[in-house]
């Protein structure tokens, strides 16, 4: 669901956030209009608004874990976790986390990749939020949800700054909250 | 003996204290750019940037940033790696902070400093949660601020 349809219709902060995202054509491969959030991070107000919107949404949901997907989920997740009193758990590419991990595969356009989480980072019954900058197919988010559920967490929602609702198809009913749609034309 | 900061991130009070200490130090230094080194620098940098009113600029491994970048090599124990930054992310004269979780040899930090200086920024300080002062040797006089020393024995 989009923020604009979920209580934030007409909120001027969403326009500012959308405008701050840069579209880069043909990255990483021809035909992809890449939604580059690094320009959002240069716009202090828009970046702060992004975090504030997520914090306002999640602060009273009893969430004790914010799980961020490497690497751009690390840019948004910790600020949200700190503001709502939750832990931050990084979900990482293989062989980055030291110590004992669990691992979940997910499908890429060509081939597969894996996402890892530390054993013992969360306890069964904890309520979790998954965060990433962008959702496309939902493959990475679904791997993240599976990791958390394997450790007994209840995933309350997946949250992304930008994306299309199609991303929810692979989330097995888990809610998906997106601030803005992708921009289709170059703006910088 | 790997210093794993992920357990710090599970301890809300300790994580908040970490960010608060950096924010208190840097909030009145006129810093407009916080540059975080991929990926664990991304965990600390943005919160500091948001609190002090600065931009956050990610410094990344090769081929991750879309668009035009500049690139700086640095030496690993075996071989070299590169760090990249977007062209246009910062303007000449901006005062910058570099942040990473840990400093060992200082190689990555020194590459970060060079990237920022090539774009005309003034690097005020490099900040890490954990590390040894030796890391400063490769920073060409740039100050290095470290919260804690590495632990030498297993504690979990």
TrEMBL record, chain A:
<dbReference type="GO" id="GO:0005737">
    <property type="term" value="C:cytoplasm"/>
</dbReference>
<keyword id="KW-0963">Cytoplasm</keyword>
<dbReference type="Pfam" id="PF00156">
    <property type="entry name" value="Pribosyltran"/>
</dbReference>
<dbReference type="InterPro" id="IPR005764">
    <property type="entry name" value="Ade_phspho_trans"/>
</dbReference>
<dbReference type="GO" id="GO:0006168">
    <property type="term" value="P:adenine salvage"/>
</dbReference>
<keyword id="KW-0328">Glycosyltransferase</keyword>
<comment type="subunit">
    <text>Homodimer.</text>
</comment>
<feature type="domain" description="Phosphoribosyltransferase">
    <location>
        <begin position="43"/>
        <end position="173"/>
    </location>
</feature>
<dbReference type="InterPro" id="IPR000836">
    <property type="entry name" value="PRTase_dom"/>
</dbReference>
<dbReference type="InterPro" id="IPR050120">
    <property type="entry name" value="Adenine_PRTase"/>
</dbReference>
<protein>
    <recommendedName>
        <fullName>adenine phosphoribosyltransferase</fullName>
        <ecNumber>2.4.2.7</ecNumber>
    </recommendedName>
</protein>
<keyword id="KW-0660">Purine salvage</keyword>
<dbReference type="GO" id="GO:0006166">
    <property type="term" value="P:purine ribonucleoside salvage"/>
</dbReference>
<comment type="pathway">
    <text>Purine metabolism; AMP biosynthesis via salvage pathway; AMP from adenine: step 1/1.</text>
</comment>
<dbReference type="GO" id="GO:0003999">
    <property type="term" value="F:adenine phosphoribosyltransferase activity"/>
</dbReference>
<dbReference type="InterPro" id="IPR029057">
    <property type="entry name" value="PRTase-like"/>
</dbReference>
<keyword id="KW-0808">Transferase</keyword>
<dbReference type="GO" id="GO:0044209">
    <property type="term" value="P:AMP salvage"/>
</dbReference>
<comment type="similarity">
    <text>Belongs to the purine/pyrimidine phosphoribosyltransferase family.</text>
</comment>
From TrEMBL, chain B:
<dbReference type="GO" id="GO:0003999">
    <property type="term" value="F:adenine phosphoribosyltransferase activity"/>
</dbReference>
<keyword id="KW-0328">Glycosyltransferase</keyword>
<keyword id="KW-0660">Purine salvage</keyword>
<keyword id="KW-0808">Transferase</keyword>
<comment type="pathway">
    <text>Purine metabolism; AMP biosynthesis via salvage pathway; AMP from adenine: step 1/1.</text>
</comment>
<dbReference type="GO" id="GO:0006166">
    <property type="term" value="P:purine ribonucleoside salvage"/>
</dbReference>
<comment type="subunit">
    <text>Homodimer.</text>
</comment>
<protein>
    <recommendedName>
        <fullName>adenine phosphoribosyltransferase</fullName>
        <ecNumber>2.4.2.7</ecNumber>
    </recommendedName>
</protein>
<feature type="domain" description="Phosphoribosyltransferase">
    <location>
        <begin position="11"/>
        <end position="141"/>
    </location>
</feature>
<dbReference type="InterPro" id="IPR000836">
    <property type="entry name" value="PRTase_dom"/>
</dbReference>
<keyword id="KW-0963">Cytoplasm</keyword>
<dbReference type="GO" id="GO:0005829">
    <property type="term" value="C:cytosol"/>
</dbReference>
<dbReference type="InterPro" id="IPR050120">
    <property type="entry name" value="Adenine_PRTase"/>
</dbReference>
<dbReference type="InterPro" id="IPR029057">
    <property type="entry name" value="PRTase-like"/>
</dbReference>
<comment type="similarity">
    <text>Belongs to the purine/pyrimidine phosphoribosyltransferase family.</text>
</comment>
<dbReference type="Pfam" id="PF00156">
    <property type="entry name" value="Pribosyltran"/>
</dbReference>
């Amino acid at each position: 669901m989009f923020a604009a349809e979920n209580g934030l219709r007409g909120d001027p902060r969403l326009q500012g956030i959308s405008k701050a995202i840069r579209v880069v054509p043909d990255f990483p491969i021809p035909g992809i209009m890449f939604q580059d959030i690094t320009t959002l991070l240069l716009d202090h107000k828009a970046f702060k608004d992004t975090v504030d919107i997520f914090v306002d949404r999640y602060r009273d949901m009893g969430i004790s874990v914010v799980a961020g997907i490497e690497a751009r989920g690390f840019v948004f997740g910790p600020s949200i976790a700190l503001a709502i009193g939750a832990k931050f758990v990084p979900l990482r590419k293989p062989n980055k986390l030291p110590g004992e991990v669990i691992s979940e595969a997910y499908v890429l356009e060509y081939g597969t990749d894996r996402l890892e989480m530390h054993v013992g980072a969360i306890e069964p019954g904890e309520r979790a939020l998954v965060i990433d900058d962008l959702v496309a197919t939902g493959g990475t988010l679904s791997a993240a949800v599976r990791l958390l559920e394997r450790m007994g967490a209840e995933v309350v929602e997946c949250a992304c700054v930008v994306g299309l609702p199609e991303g929810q198809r692979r989330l097995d009913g888990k809610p998906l909250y997106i601030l803005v749609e992708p921009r289709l034309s170059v703006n910088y």
